[in-house]
Amino acid sequence: MQLRNFLRVVLLFLGSVFLLSLLLVKANADELPITIENNHDLSQIISQLSAQNSELRDSITSQKAQVSLINDQQTTILSQVSHVQNTLTTLDEQGEWLSFSTALGETLRQQLLRLPEKPKFQPLDASIAESKVLQLSYNNQLDNLKDYPNLTDLSLDHSQLMHYKQLIREQNELLKTLISGCDTIILELTKLKIANRQLISAIDDVDDAAHRYFFWVADVNPVNLAYPVELAKDMAVVFFSIDSLSQLYSAMTEMVETPLTLLLLIFSLVLVITHFKSKTKYHQYLENTTSRIGKVTQDSFSITVRVVVYSLIMALPIPILWGIIGYALQGDWDYPVAVALGYGINAAAPILWVFMISAQFAAPNGLFITHFGWPENRVRSAMKYYQLSVWVVIPLVMLLMSFDQYNNRQFAATIGRFCFILLCFALVFMTNSIHRARVPLYIDKRSSGDNLLSRILWVILLSAPWVAIAAACLGYLSTAQVLLGRLEASVIIWLGLLVIYFMIRRWMWIQKRRIEFERAKQRRLERLAQRSKAEDEASQNASSNNIADNIEEPVIDLDVISAQSLHLVRSIIAMVALISMILLWSELHSAFAFMDNIKLWGTKTVISGVEIEQYITLSSVFIAILVMTITIQLVKNLPALLELGILQHLDLRPGTGYAISTISKYIILIIGCMIAFSLIGIDWSKIQWLIAALGVGLGFGLQEIFANFISGIIMLFEKPVRIGDTVTIRELTGTITKINTRATTIVDWDRKEIVMPNKAFVTEQLVNWSLSDAITRIVLTIPATIDADSELVMDILKRVAKNCQYVLDDPEPQVYLVDIQEGIQLYEIRLFASEMSYRMPLRSEIQQMIIEEYRQHGLKLPFPPLQTNLEALGRKTGRRTYSVGTM
Questions:
Q1: SS in 3 state form for 75-90?
Q2: Three-state secondary structure along 18-62?
Q3: Which one of 294, 424, 445, 808 has the fewest beta carbons within 10 angstroms of its own beta carbon?
Q4: Which residues does 241 contact at the CB level (< 8 Å), separation at least 6?
Q5: Order of all β-strands in the sheet with 726-729
């Protein structure tokens, strides 16, 4: 409807522009000098002026009729505004008595149904634009009158000359009248537009009040012993008295005879036929892709995406046909039964699509079993009542919504309530089957669906249909329908996000398997290269060709892959779910307005110098809890969200992103706390002096805490250390794992976690082994006897350094004969490793290789057998001493 109105405005605007252009062209054509040389020319000009004046008089008559019509519309709108305002007043006066009288509630509901519809702004805007265009054209015509000559030639016919001047004066007056009439029309249309806004505002106020008063009020009589009799009577009326079948037959006949509706029906039937014919190909595709799932060289996430898209498409044709039938029936206003049935069919079409999508996903080779790896018996158990959902739930939803729409809910209390109760029982069977299949509603950080939140959600879902049945029997039919509908929509959204989570998890699993496979393949290649050094090139090629066949596919545990990434995905999906729930349930905010009347405590505030007492209500407390919940979620998940969405796309120095996310966390926490505290009466103006006094006291009493806090902020910006750096401080060497505002966590080589105050990193000497370059040098001192061949020893040491897998080729290893003392030759090997974690493996491997080479060449180690010096700098004294393992 909005699109149609928008197109109408655009067309009117274009038409007005076209009309204006024509008028301008005509005005330009009329700008040619008008010459009257004889009586014949004068006669033609008089005829032209007479015709123009006649058209202008008709335009004045049309203007007066238009002004009259606008005034009538204003009167109607004002009366409607008065009626709506009176209805609102009645609601406010009678609202507190609604819970005591069902008849009063029904009377007020009938009064609400007679309220006018909301008017549209767009036609008025187009009319105002058209009036302005006409006014501009009249002004141009008035200016063109100046081009007519003021005749004084005595040779012309005097009577015609007087008639000519009279027509000029008359046209001038007519044009001024039309210009003034355009101003009047524009003014009246503006008043009408303002009146429409008042009517819309009044209708919105009434709707809000009705939702607030009627939501928790019984709308039908409670079920009693007379209910079966009333139900039977109303069913007899539906089937026999109101001629339902005849109306449906007539509506279907008219639907087939309408060209547009017939075209849509043929299109939907073609889709359904194509759907059934393509089922075989679809299942064949699922079987073909099933053989590729799980194989690291053939599996791909694109297969899962295609299966999801094909499943959505395969589930679409029947709901499209269903929706088109409902749309066609809704247009037959001559048949109320058909209109109500069309409304119910349209309401059931999305639910039918959801059920059919679930069936496609739960196929033996579908998404749930093959791609997600869910146990087949659980999936079958969850889909146990699928036929019940299609053949029972969908018709019940259709009938329920139809009777809720038909003839001011004439049969809602009897047949509609009976359908709703049957629907709730069907939901009980379906929910229990899904619960017995152990479908998780929440996945925790251990990738487990068996957790407290999941159990709470299942309790709510299992009890909701029973609560709805009880509410409907007590007369709260509309309330039960709305709440149960919102709950089921929330479940659908939640399960949809759960499917997205498992899809992302599968993508990460595929990527992890490929990385592990490539690493295993590379290790295999390296081992084969070492074993085949003595073989010829042909044998090397033969071995390389069989690598992929001999590599075993790694077995990956889903619970341990990319824990941080999965936590990020869960956090994002949880935020999306929370926002979706807020948007879904926000329409019922007025229904929970009763919490504003529950006052918990009072607080005084100063506004414009006047002290006013305000009360904290239950609604304020709930909103404050919601604000704190959102704040905590943002603080917990903000670093990952920033890193994924923004920081990874920016060219930042190492550590800058961490500093930005940390400071952002504190800002969000402070703002969230201030908003939450203000909602419960703890305003900043009341506690600022207390905080200032506490700040001064804590500044003296907790100097070290504040010093560490400020040092933590300095570390975030100066970045002397980063997460993952290897540092040495206070004779402690380890890897930085956490940088908090008060302390930093270091994990040493024994895997112990040491919490170091941040002040130490700013004020004390710090060695960062990997700040700008992670490469580290290792110096090994190797002895040899005095009679050993120095060239042979140096060749051995060079060869050993070259063959060690941990030694870098660039910088190149260096070997020197550095000293001769007490009958011993001392050699130094200066080696470079790519990171600190390779220091001990390098030392161990290269010393084993040296011992083996000494044995093969008959060399002996003097006493002590092996001395090692790991000082990165040169000798500090003239006579060096060596201790094994020093650094």
A1: HHHHHHHHHHHHHHHH
A2: HHHHHHHHHHHHHCCCCCCCCHHHHHHHHHHHHHHHHHHHHHHHH
A3: 445
A4: none
A5: 753-757, 743-748, 732-739, 726-729, 767-768
Asked if 759 and 780 sit in the same domain, the reply is no
Structural domain total, the chain: 5
- Helix axes 244-257 and 259-277, enclosed angle (nearest 10): 90
Q: How many residues does the chain have?
A: 887
Q: What is the DSSP-derived secondary structure letter of residue 389? A: I
In Å, how far are 44, 617, 618, 625, 688 from 602, measured between CA atoms? 88, 9, 12, 18, 20
Question: How far are the Cα atoms of 12, 95, 189, 242, 476 from residue 131, in angstroms, in the given order?
Answer: 12, 46, 10, 49, 52
Query: Nearest Cα to 488, choosing from 318, 346, 339, 347?
Result: 347
| Pairing, β 726-729 against β 610-617 | unpaired
Asked whether residue 327 falls in the same domain as residue 250, the answer is: yes
Enclosing domain of residue 168: 2-214
In sequence order, the 6+-apart residues with CB closer than 8 A to the CB of 432 are 462
Read off the pLDDT of residues 665-719 as tens digits, 9 standing for 90 and up: 778 888 888 888 777 777 666 666 666 666 666 666 566 776 777 777 777 666 6
Render 687-755 in DSSP notation, one character per residue: HHHHHHHHHHHHHHHTHHHHHHHHHHHHHHHH-SS-TT-EEEETTEEEEEEEE-SSEEEEEETT--EEE
Three-state SS for 197-244 is: HHHHHHHHHHHHHHHHHHCCCCCCCCCCCCHHHHHHHHHHHHHHHCCH
85-104: burial string, b at 16+ Cβ within 10 Å, e else? eebbeebeeebeebeeebee
pLDDT band at 422 (very low <50, low <70, confident <90, very high): very high
Tokens of 494: 């939640």
Q: Which of 443, 487, 489 is nearest to 462 (CA)?
A: 487
* Residue at token pair 């004068």: 42
- The CA-atom distances, in angstroms, between 548 and each of 103, 297, 489, 518 are 81, 10, 49, 10
| Distance from C-alpha of 494 to C-alpha of 442, rounded to nearest angstrom | 9
Integer Cα distance of 252 and 243 in angstroms = 14
Map tokens 């008025």 to a residue: 124
CATH at 747: 2.30.30.60
Residue where one domain finishes, among candidates 768, 792, 814: 768
Q: Provide the mean pLDDT of the chain.
A: 76
Segment 319-363, tens digit of pLDDT: 998 888 888 888 777 778 888 888 888 888 888 888 888 888 888
Is the alpha carbon torsion for 792, 795, 797, 800 positive or negative?
negative
Boundary-marking domain end, from 188, 214, 240: 214
- Helices (H), ranges, 145-157: none
Angle at 510 (CA atoms; ends 506, 515), nearest 5 degrees: 145
CA distance 848 to 828: 16
